[in-house]
Amino acid sequence: MLRSTFLSLSLFAALTAGAQTSAYTTLSAHAHNDYEHPIPFLTAYYRHFGSIEADVYERNGQLLVAHNEEDIRPERTLEKLYLQPLQEQVRKNGGTAFKNSKDTLQLMIDFKTIGIPTVKALIKTLENYPEITKTPTIVVTISGDQPAPALWDQYPSYIHFDGKREGRYTSAQLKRIPMYSVDVKLFTNWNGKGLIVKAEREKMQHWIDSVHNAGKKVRFWGTADNVNTWKTLMNMGVNYVGTDQLEDLATFLTDRKNLEYNGTAAPHTLYPARYVNNDSLGQVNNVILLIGDGMGLAQIYAGFTGNRGQLNLLQMRNIGFSKTYSSDSYITDSAAGGTAMATGNKTNNRYIGVDNTGVRLNPIPDIIAPKGYKSALISAGDITDATPAAFYGHVPERALEDTIAAHFLSSPVSIMIGGGAKHFNQRKDGLNMPALLQEKGYVFSTRLEDLDTLHASKYLVLDKRAELSMLGGRGNFLTHSLEKSIATLRQKFFIMAEGAQIDYGGHVNNLPYVATEMMDFDEAIGAAMKFADEDGHTLVIVTADHETGGLSLLDGNISKGYVDGHFSSNDHSAVMVPVFAYGPHSLDFRGVYENTEIFKKIVALLK
């Protein structure tokens, strides 16, 4: 991470446009005009800022902090606002700027009055703060009206100076320079939106490179103060990102590793779809409904980027949008969203398989079973969780997972694969569901390995490993389970397979989680498309119950599989979600419609 050492050339190379910037922390943040904040110094200090700026005026040997001369107040001294609280922290920390750390804090003092008397006043003042001047973890850097470089050797070694772009320095003087600061307007009139003009950017980058080649840090002043500006400066390798928005920049920098996916997982190979144009009105014998829980357009594009610019999903050309609101809320949860697709009825949030008055609704497996159709439910999560539960459970509260599991005893579903075995074999009511299921002809297993050897036509395979994330080592569970279910059911079937943990990643605001789950979900989509091509009478539908996290994408590099995002929420959002369709009657899924229409279209095709 960027600490007291200079940015190495190798790290700089990794921080060029579209590359990961997770090496940045709040140590890379510069509190611009810090004294203008309600609580000077301590706000930035407690957020672990690496550089804090104070403008000072010298008056009769005293240093007063202000931006303009008319703002000077006798009580606002450098000592009171900065040196006293800093010394107190150093004492508490046992001699370092930050507790239990050798991280460096730069106190940048911008001289607004003539350099020589001002630096003399500063040195005189600092004599009373030996804890500050003796620790190598604090760098006092003079900016503004500095004394001439030829005079620097007269001052104590703890005094450093901000390098000037036009400056010419001896090797001894260079040792007193930790960073170079420059007005960004010398390079560009960029307003912080979009990209810097190429010629201006190249000139700016060349200067940054030259400073790094000299082993020094870089800071620009006069920049816009927004996310796009911060990100652009970081991509260019700027060491200190200045801000007046202390909390916003601190939050942005604190969680870099959770907000950037760096293409660490090997991309999966795209299935070469043979019948992309198979949108005929031929007979549909099978439907595979793939639900990416929490999957919106940003999640899809994050997966596309992470998979180096290819997704099976994006080969589908028949696309619609689903409106997801529930009966009682503008923003649906998975229970109401799943129930809408499973039963064709809007219901209240938290309700599963019942209408908004609590009356039981028939889901797709129940409706098509009398016609000879078999069904399978798969989830990369708990099989009694809201989305899969909507296809066999009937409760007014999604948390009643033991009750939901018991409802499976009266469901015609032939196959269930996922997690959540405890709701079947470790129940609080003592009901021995595995035994009851065996009486009904099911094989019950808690070992995913058994999928490879099962020859039964009806089974439940519920292993906690199915609940692991891709980052946690789940592997190809979802695709394997889908392929096994297809092989078992063979024809006249309905399968719902859920990429449950796209949603989980959104809830915890973790973009690597989201991207890797989306990529895994897309592998299952490829398997479904492959079977649809081979069979000729299988319709594949891919959609979501809702979007999670309010995800937006700030930056990315498709060739590197790198993507940087921002979450506006840790919960669901109200935006419409896409519906992709592949195979016969896929044209039926174009347009914008209620999520309940997905049920109606499926049932109409199978009945």
UniProtKB/TrEMBL annotation:
| Residues where Mg(2+) binds | 293, 385, 387, 498
Q: Do you know which SUPFAM superfamilies this protein is assigned to?
A: Alkaline phosphatase-like, PLC-like phosphodiesterases
Query: Which residues constitute the signal peptide according to the record?
Result: 1-19
Q: Which GO terms describe its biological process?
A: lipid metabolic process
Name what cofactor the protein needs.
Zn(2+); Mg(2+)
> What does UniProt list as catalytic?
334 (phosphoserine intermediate)
Q: Write down a Pfam family by its short name.
A: GDPD_2
A molecular function annotated in GO for this UniProt entry is:
phosphoric diester hydrolase activity
Keyword Transferase annotated: no
Q: Where are the transmembrane segments?
A: none
Alphabetically ordered keywords of this record: Hydrolase, Magnesium, Metal-binding, Phosphoprotein, Signal, Zinc
| Manner of cofactor binding, per the entry note | Binds 2 Zn(2+) ions.
The residues the record assigns to binding Zn(2+) are: 293, 503, 507, 545-546
Q: What protein family is recorded?
A: Belongs to the alkaline phosphatase family.
Q: What is this protein called?
A: Alkaline phosphatase
Instruction: List the source organism.
Output: Chitinophaga ginsengisoli
